[in-house]
Amino acid sequence: MLNSTNLPLHPLKFIKKSLERIGSFLRIILIVICIFLIVIILLSDRYGKITLTTDWTLVFIAPFFLILLGIIIYEYLYYKLYYYNFDNEKGLIRKGVISKATGLVYYHKIQNVYVDQDFLDALLNLYDVHYETAGEKSGFYSHVDGLNKENAHKLVEFLNGKTKGMQGKKMEEGQGLKAYSKVDISQQEISRRTFPISIKYFFVIAVNIFLIIAAVFMFIYLDFILTKKPADLLILTYLMCGGAIPALVGAYVWYRNYDFYFNSRQGKIIRRLIAESVSYVNYDRIQNINILKGTIDSIFNIYTLKIETAGEQSSERLIIPGQSKENAEKIKDFLLSKTKSNKVGL
Predict the structure, then answer these.
(1) Domain assignment present for 219
(2) Residue 85: what are its φ and ψ, rounded to 5°?
(3) Is residue 94 part of a domain?
């Protein structure tokens, strides 16, 4: 059994959530200030110069700091009251301060398990463990957020073991994939090392970025034809090119770090840019496997293999891109054979 006592959230979760809330609050304050300044300017034009006295300043500054303090207190209470318990049959997560929300899941309903990070998680070395049931996206009730690497590893292994066990095949202790370490090499394994993702896939991404840039440029050029303002054309073109270079660099880093491992027991697909996302594949949950080839893929003659489960996010997360037709078929045959051997009654 794992719960918030023997598998606690990391204290940095409180800091992360506070930073997120304060950031959202500051964005609202910035909008309010802009509106306030516009009103002051308009009133000054109509009624003469308006000066901001100390009383005016206190009207805005005092509530500002009170709200910041309230955010910090709320997020600390939210962190302290966050409760979860995963026993032998089901998992329960309860969140909230004033009003509490509770999510309950039975392991046989879990389709996908994945580990995710956002930008702040990556900076603070925190991990969110999500589980997805059929027809439901992983959301407020179905993830434990703010675990350190070790505790995320333990929870992933526990959920993968329970999920697989509920399908009638008991997972032997220690067989689960290590959440953040490489899988042991064996003859029953396929991975990016044995089925490399073609560099052509990066060029597919680059072409898509180029098409977006071209569409934006045509819009800018049309505006130039109508307004005859060359300065606007030059400025917007520089801004567009300045956004294209980071997009291409980010796409290449994403391509280089995209990885996948499938052995005789289980699989995982990994995405890394700044943050990391790890999606786990239990063979007994696979519903369908498709080999797809888009319009731009056809130019480069590459295919994408898509793994589908009953969970809605599987089509977005469980893909193996940049494969030749031969390799895509081999991967599909491997996964189908594992699916058949792992599903009861097949």
Answers:
(1) yes
(2) -150, 125
(3) no
